[in-house]
């Protein structure tokens, strides 16, 4: 899908579900920016507040491209900021904080994802905001939350930290091998973003009924504990070893495919499919534990002998026809070329501004709605690109004041 394109154009007159919702976001990196990008895709107006000179930290990530002025625009920023406007505002400057407080009253939601306590120290925390703007929704995203008293509250946190602390890494680790960090991209960020979207929309719905604003506090560790639910749930039910199911990858003629077999009728279907119907009566496989115990010495060789004559897609198609869940392990290049991805508009092509012909690919919107058009997507903003427009429109500032603020380093 290209920038500016629209799918389901017949639904354009219906508008989008969050049309009219306005979000002021002091955000960085991914956990909150992914959330506000999704809200923007659903119709919300998002104004991003970032440092007036170098912008938020996601712009400094690698790999990167250059913006029209030769400044770095990192991959993390490019993935998470479509459809937003940027205001360059120094929140460490007293006048910058005053402007942020004034702007907050023009928006439905103020959202931030600094380390816990940072906004309070700046005088921009939820209590100060809600006292001044009682109907405001104030949303915080942090590693360990602001409400309550986490022993880790002061710790900085990238996605890997709550992923590790959720038990996921130890659950997946084998023997003495080191843990595999970030096994699913920034799962700690994306899961937190999704729970933030739910919390913000729920708070908006609550305000619709009551007229009352509130504080939405989402911790990355909480989100990861929810995402890695089986870690604690299985342990509580007595499982102290590997799960009693076949969940692994098998090699086909052209690479690997993933399979899950967790029920007796599925095991019988697997045995029949790969030409080993006798497994059903074999005492070694009388229990699910037996499947796990004999996976490497018996089951894997048989499945891979069968799959050696088939491509991954052929093997998975036959598994599916037998009622078994299987999927090919794709490379990045194969994901990009996949017909499903194209038909569902799950990659957005963002043209580069530094002379490189190949576009940057950004995941599309996973939320498909029959009565809502998808798109148009607009490019990420450059640092402070919309500062003057927002401050003029929202606060009525004139040319002289904007020049003075710029001269003092308050805005870009």
Specify the overall morphology: elongated
Strand order of the largest sheet: 5-2-1-6-7-8
CATH class value of the largest domain: Alpha Beta
The strand count comes to 13
Mean pLDDT over the full residue set: 96
Strand content: 15-25%
Task: State the helicity in percent bands.
Answer: 25-40%
The total domain count is 2
Q: Uncertain segments of ≥5 residues (pLDDT<50)?
A: none
- CATH domain fold name of the largest domain: Rossmann fold
What structural category arises from helix and sheet content? alpha/beta
Radius of gyration: 25 Å
Cα end-to-end separation = 32 Å
Largest sheet: 6 strands, parallel
Number of helical runs?
18
CATH homology-level superfamily of the largest domain: Crotonobetainyl-coa:carnitine coa-transferase, domain 1
CATH 2nd-level architecture of the largest domain = 3-Layer(aba) Sandwich
Structure description:
It is a single chain. The protein has two domains: 9-230 and 347-407, Crotonobetainyl-coa:carnitine coa-transferase, domain 1 (Rossmann fold), CATH 3.40.50.10540; 246-329, formyl-coa transferase, domain 3 (2-Layer Sandwich). The protein has helices spanning 33-41, 75-80, 94-104, 118-121, 126-132, 160-165, 168-172, 187-210, 220-227, 229-236, 264-273, 288-293, 295-307, 312-321, 332-337, 339-343, 387-395, 399-407, and strands at residues 22-26, 45-50, 64-66, 72-74, 85-88, 109-112, 137-142, 214-219, 246-252, 255-261, 325-328, 347-350, 360-363. Strand 3 (64-66) and strand 4 form a beta hairpin. The two termini are 32 Å apart. Strands 5-2-1-6-7-8 form a six-stranded parallel beta sheet, sandwiched between helices. With 412 residues, it is an alpha/beta fold. It is built from 18 helices and 13 strands.
């Amino acid at each position: 899908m290209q920038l500016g394109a629209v799918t389901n154009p017949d639904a354009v007159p219906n508008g989008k579900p969050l049309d009219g919702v306005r979000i002021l976001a002091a955000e960085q990196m991914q956990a909150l920016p992914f959330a506000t990008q999704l809200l923007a895709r659903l119709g919300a107006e998002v104004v991003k507040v970032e440092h007036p000179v170098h912008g938020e930290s996601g712009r400094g990530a690698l790999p990167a491209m250059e913006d029209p002025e030769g400044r770095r625009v990192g991959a993390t920023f490019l993935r998470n900021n479509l459809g937003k406007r940027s205001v360059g505002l120094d929140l460490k400057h007293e006048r910058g904080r005053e402007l942020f407080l004034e702007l907050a009253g023009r928006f439905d939601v103020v959202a931030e994802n600094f380390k816990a306590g940072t906004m309070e120290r700046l005088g921009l925390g939820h209590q100060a905001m809600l006292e001044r703007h009682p109907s405001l929704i104030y949303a915080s995203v942090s590693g360990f939350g602001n409400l309550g008293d986490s022993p880790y509250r002061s710790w900085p946190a990238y996605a890997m930290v709550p992923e590790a602390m959720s038990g996921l890494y130890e659950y997946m680790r084998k023997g003495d091998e080191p843990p595999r960090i970030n096994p699913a991209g920034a799962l700690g960020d994306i899961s937190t973003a999704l729970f933030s979207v739910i919390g913000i929309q729920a708070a908006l719905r609550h305000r619709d009924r009551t007229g009352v604003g509130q504080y939405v506090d989402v911790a990355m560790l909480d989100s990861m504990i929810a995402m890695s639910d089986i870690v604690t749930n299985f342990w509580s039910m007595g499982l102290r070893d590997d799960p009693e199911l076949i969940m692994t990858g098998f090699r086909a003629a052209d690479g690997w495919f993933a399979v899950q077999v967790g029920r007796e009728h599925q095991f019988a279907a697997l045995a029949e499919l790969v030409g080993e119907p006798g497994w059903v009566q074999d005492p070694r496989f009388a229990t699910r534990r037996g499947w796990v115990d004999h996976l490497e010495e018996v089951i894997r060789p048989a499945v891979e002998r069968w799959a050696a004559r088939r491509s991954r897609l052929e093997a998975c198609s036959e598994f599916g026809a037998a009622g078994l869940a299987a999927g090919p392990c794709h490379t990045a290049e194969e994901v990009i070329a996949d017909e499903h991805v194209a038909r569902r508009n799950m990659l957005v092509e963002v043209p580069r501004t530094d002379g490189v012909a190949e576009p940057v690919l950004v995941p599309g919107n996973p939320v498909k709605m029959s009565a809502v058009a998808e798109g148009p997507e607009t490019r990420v903003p450059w640092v402070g690109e919309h500062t003057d427009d927002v401050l003029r429109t929202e606060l009525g500032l004139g040319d002289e004041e904007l020049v003075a603020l710029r001269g003092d380093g308050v805005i870009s």
